[in-house]
């Protein structure tokens, strides 16, 4: 039968047997505004994560269209997508910053979706988005399989329930079964195949054509009509039909995998279904799938071709059916033990206080009209517009302006944000008092204000620390004239506020400003924003590798005691030494970059009533700021910033009881750190360089030339040479999951043939190696030359290592 499927409906068993409402309902739903009346259990906070070019933004656009959020489908190639709205994103055809958008599905659920970048240079956008998400959709390219960045984002999303969507099934060389095997073996996960691809013209001449999916749970075949993306043909699979044998084996595999985890399903299968896999009801399977997903036991897998509008509606059904609501999601990380209850009406209740609101700021943007806007996720209570809030990270108290929900770059005002919701803070005071990663605390009753927050446990709550990855490239930025200097500093401050993975260092002696980032493209985008968006009159220098220095020995204690009551004893240690002696009497604070930490030994004043006018958080933040500045240019070999060091402040520290400013604390602690480091000899320092993990994919015939170049000119350490789709390769490859991959029943890949499923035979080889970043800058042009344009590579940051003595002179000569 042919059904005109409304995009606002699901493809579940109960809806497939009826005619869906007319298309106008889809448009009506798209026009409805969100009013915060959505039940917490109907919320889904999800992210789209994947390797670059897997189809994240294309899939997001189809989700928005089929949900009724938009009236037309945007395409990346045409530069008219909703979530890629920055000029740089539309001109380059890539996602640069994460974008949030809300829409409804099945006229019941509300999905808050964050589309994240796939390029490794923008990995911080993924890191901070994952901190506030309850579930993820991981998109895989059916042609490329599990790629390097896929492995990286999968690892970053550890512990977050995931659904996998194998995209681009319409492309030549697409392999659903091959990709699923890689998913099991390389990402160490069990899979639950909820649907598998259906092809037309599988036995006649010509290439098979991907046209739909076989729904394993509901025993249906769904076919899409290319001319009308909303028209779906639904066919029941009857006994002895073309798809029956595959369906029986797929259902058997699905029920068997779930039975290893779900006793309820086992009882039904043995007692009621009498061992018949085909009569286990979809409702029970769906319940079991969700149970196993929430326990991170297995991952549901679906497939489609987003560009051709195939398979997106079943994916949306899977999102609302299986991914957790805020009531079911994993609780955030707290810096202290605090009781948390989950209430179906209020959501999470922290510290037994229903009026306590706790939220996290995870992203800052600058809007040309509204100014600074801060994205927040509310974890408990209600955040109301116009209320006074407390930043437990900085100790600042301020009033927020209007609250809005973002639909990409379009804002919708709301009166409050409830538990589980994602929204945006606005107001002039927000820009001064909130940064990425800060925890916001308030009371949801205006008449009580902050009076109920006199409990130290609540005032000191911090959640989900967001660590910034280290920058590996730098550029010098200079104003064209002295008159342009102020605008340059303001513009740099703007882009760093929005993107903390960019760092700025100012050499106090030379006045030179260095802007550091995650990669060449990262800095290219920053340069483009400075010149074209913020209109800064600056000159941007050549991209350079960011070298660091580290300590081989501890400094002596540098002690200062003033007549007015300041006392500090400070030393600097190699991080590994500090970690070996770590104790519970210390507060450790990450210094934002370069793997440096502040260790604050607890003063006796911390144990009793706090005697000072200045809060503990303000003192900590002052010492953090001074430590960051002091470590920036303290290397003695080449004045590189220090890396992997710990600044220790002994427990005898004190400040004047009547001090109301932290300026003295800043100046004195910074001076003591400089003094401690100056006393060390040059031999106590070592130069570090960034090492990259690269995956080079080449034809076997080109491998010899590429290997010779890597090991010779590039100083590479070759880790392995594998077939491109080898199940034993990858960072997480495990023999247990390799066996699971081989045992998993999978239909034959119609586009590849049976041989490729089992053997993974391919003419391409993947070389995995560790290479000093300095030796691989602009490597693509050399690789193209060696492989006649056929080679490709991906690169990810591996870590910092000491520069060998034979390479150190040439590095120092450059600086």
UniProtKB/TrEMBL annotation:
Q: Which Gene3D superfamilies match?
A: 3.30.70.240, Elongation Factor G (Translational Gtpase), domain 3, P-loop containing nucleotide triphosphate hydrolases, Translation factors
Q: Name one GO cellular component term.
A: mitochondrion
Binding positions for GTP?
A: 50-57, 115-119, 167-170
Q: Where in the cell is it found?
A: Mitochondrion
Any one GO biological process: mitochondrial translation
Q: Which GO terms describe its molecular function?
A: GTP binding; GTPase activity
- Record-linked SMART domains: EFG_C
Keywords (A to Z) from UniProt: GTP-binding, Mitochondrion, Nucleotide-binding, Protein biosynthesis
Domain Tr-type G: where? 41-327
Please give the function described in this protein's UniProt entry: Mitochondrial GTPase that mediates the disassembly of ribosomes from messenger RNA at the termination of mitochondrial protein biosynthesis. Not involved in the GTP-dependent ribosomal translocation step during translation elongation.
> What is the name of this protein?
Ribosome-releasing factor 2, mitochondrial
Originating species? Lachancea nothofagi CBS 11611
